[in-house]
């Protein structure tokens, strides 16, 4: 859609994005382009990011504990322990509510009440600093449309810790932790099933049996170590590969909170992974290891001026980011920030895979040369009594952006909607790409009881758009409200729109994700005396049921509820 949504549409009423049921379900965000194929594959790009890539593709020191998948456009089941509590979450896909009765009346067609999600876990109180935790969670959402093809690969529909439906991930772990006034140590171990999407477009199953992780955090030392025994099954036990992987990171330097208290901070770190492959492992790392030392710096010469950045190299790959931000004194009730960011690298993810093996073809996931991204921005905020206003503008240029040079495509017609795979190599767009973006926000607050807010934004990109993996959405709007009743009952909803987005390189013709309105809502009841919270959430209702990624599942209305007891 090229026509800009009228600006006055923003000035209705809205609130913040409603949290989805689990990691990877980024499609509740409204401030950019978020295209979900499953909880393990999402194109996540905010309007303020700049460049044409997904945020998941760009490695930074803040992602030290992000797990490493072959495809960089990935979200991963988090093993970060929760706060002391016990919790339970359940939910279902429920189809398109507007056509539910019609679907149920059709002969030989499954009910629109489709695939479930389930999560349960606890983290105990600390006893002399020692505590225990366990968590089980899986999300079957998006799994229905590709089930036939994936079932042939593993020879079963129960490739999970519990139940069928071939969920895109099924995870269970348990462990112990020790918390002291000056440090915290955690050890976790578990069993996991995950489906990864390769650059070829294939869904590839991997079972971790076991996976173990250890973490240590102190003021000046942050470390993570993980061991993964991964088994890949590609053709019902006929093609099996095993990978034993040891990965992790160590960082010496103050944490982010401490950095704010000092004029400067210097941190040294190293991220690494080493693998031992046998059999038909579909991915490869050059020399079976990668070690990436890096230097991270922050400098605050004045209260209003901040510099930050990192630089690192593995010997084979290089990456760096830097930024400067200047905040101005309040003028006529307006707070202003301006800044500039640079990203120069030989690859977006220096710790990612180097090869994907697809039959007799080898897909090279590295390419020569450098990419460079430069972005300038300005942000204005003001509050006049109960009215809050915000506005931001940004512009960026990028050269050497990573893309994919498609050599051939093939189809798997076993599904109702044929799956499309590709061969080729990662390549670069060796010309300048330019983009501008802007967003306006308005909010009305009545004490703590009521908030009405809205935002609308746009982005325009010029360059070799036919070589982009994704052409992002150009306009978005969110309108809704939030009520806080007696500090115990909370209601929030958002009515949101994103315009068309488009995948260019994964299908013969561009794969257009049509723009759509959708409604998210949640109700929360707290019982403070008991430390108890109950929440019910409806996601993507009253909108179109879209497939947002080639070879991805259909995005249907989802309902889930949570109960949490905090200690």
Write the layout of secondary structure elements.
Blueprint (H helix, E strand, L loop, with lengths): L31 E7 L2 E6 L38 E9 L6 H6 L10 E8 L6 E10 L7 H8 L14 E11 L3 E15 L5 E16 L2 E13 L6 E13 L3 H4 L4 E16 L3 E2 L4 E14 L2 E9 L4 E10 L6 E12 L9 E4 L2 E4 L6 E14 L2 E26 L6 E28 L3 E13 L7 E2 L3 E11 L3 E10 L2 E3 L7 E3 L2 E12 L4 E10 L4 E2 L6 E2 L2 E9 L1
Antiparallel strand pairs: 1-2, 3-4, 3-32, 4-5, 5-6, 6-7, 7-8, 8-9, 9-10, 10-11, 11-13, 12-17, 13-14, 14-15, 15-16, 16-19, 17-18, 19-20, 20-21, 21-22, 22-24, 23-26, 24-25, 25-28, 26-27, 28-29, 29-32, 30-31
Protein name: Capsule assembly protein Wzi
What does this structure look like?
The chain is mainly β and 567 residues long. The chain contains 3 helices and 32 strands.
């Amino acid at each position: 859609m090229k026509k800009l949504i009228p600006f006055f549409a923003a000035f209705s009423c809205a609130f913040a994005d409603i949290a989805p049921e689990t990691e990877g379900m980024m499609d509740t965000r409204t401030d950019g382009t978020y295209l979900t194929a499953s909880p393990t594959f999402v194109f996540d790009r905010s309007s303020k990011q700049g460049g044409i890539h997904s945020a998941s593709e760009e490695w930074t020191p803040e992602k030290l504990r992000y797990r490493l998948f072959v495809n960089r456009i990935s979200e991963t089941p988090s093993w970060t322990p929760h706060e002391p509590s016990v919790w339970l979450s359940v939910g279902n896909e429920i189809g398109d509510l507007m056509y539910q009765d019609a679907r149920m009346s059709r002969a030989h067609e499954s009910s629109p009440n489709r695939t479930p999600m389930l999560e349960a876990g606890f983290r105990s109180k600390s006893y002399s600093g020692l505590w225990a935790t366990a968590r089980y969670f899986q999300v079957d959402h998006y799994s229905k449309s590709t089930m036939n093809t994936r079932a042939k690969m593993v020879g079963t529909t129960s490739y999970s810790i519990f139940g069928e439906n071939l969920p895109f991930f099924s995870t269970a772990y348990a462990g112990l932790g020790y918390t002291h006034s000056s440090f915290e140590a955690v050890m976790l171990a578990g069993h996991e099933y995950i489906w990864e999407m390769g650059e070829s477009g294939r869904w590839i199953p991997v079972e971790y049996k076991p996976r173990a992780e250890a973490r240590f955090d102190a003021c000046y030392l942050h470390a993570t170590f993980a061991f993964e025994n991964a088994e890949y099954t590609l053709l019902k036990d006929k093609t099996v590969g095993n990978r034993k992987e040891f990965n992790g990171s160590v960082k010496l330097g103050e944490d982010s909170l401490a950095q704010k208290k000092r004029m400067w901070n210097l941190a040294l770190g190293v991220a690494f992974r080493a693998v031992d492959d046998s059999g038909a492992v579909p991915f490869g790392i050059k020399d079976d290891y990668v070690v990436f030392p890096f230097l991270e710096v922050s400098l605050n010469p004045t209260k209003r001026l901040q510099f930050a950045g990192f630089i690192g190299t593995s010997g084979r790959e290089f990456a760096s980011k830097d930024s400067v931000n200047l905040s101005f004194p309040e003028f006529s009730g307006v707070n202003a920030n301006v800044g500039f960011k640079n990203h120069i690298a030989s690859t977006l993810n220096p710790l990612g895979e180097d090869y994907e093996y697809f039959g007799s073809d080898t897909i090279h996931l590295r390419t020569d040369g450098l990419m460079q991204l430069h972005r300038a921005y300005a942000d204005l905020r003001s509050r006049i009594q109960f009215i809050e206003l915000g506005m931001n503008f940004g512009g960026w240029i990028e050269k050497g952006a990573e893309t994919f040079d498609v050599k051939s495509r093939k189809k798997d017609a076993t599904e109702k909607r044929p799956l499309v795979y590709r061969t080729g190599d990662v390549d670069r767009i060796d010309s300048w790409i330019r983009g501008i973006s802007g967003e306006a926000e308005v909010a009305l607050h009545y004490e703590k009881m009521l908030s009405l807010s809205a935002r609308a934004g746009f982005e325009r990109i010029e360059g070799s758009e036919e070589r982009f993996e994704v052409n992002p959405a150009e306009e978005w709007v969110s309108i809704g409200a939030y009520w806080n009743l007696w500090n115990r009952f909370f209601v929030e909803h958002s009515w949101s729109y994103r315009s068309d987005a488009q995948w260019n390189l994964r299908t013969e013709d561009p794969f257009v994700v049509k723009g759509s309105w959708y409604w998210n809502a949640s109700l929360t009841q707290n019982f403070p005396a008991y430390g108890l919270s109950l929440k019910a959430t409806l996601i993507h209702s009253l909108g179109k049921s879209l497939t947002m990624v080639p070879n991805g599942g259909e995005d249907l209305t989802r309902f889930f509820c949570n109960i949490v007891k905090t200690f």
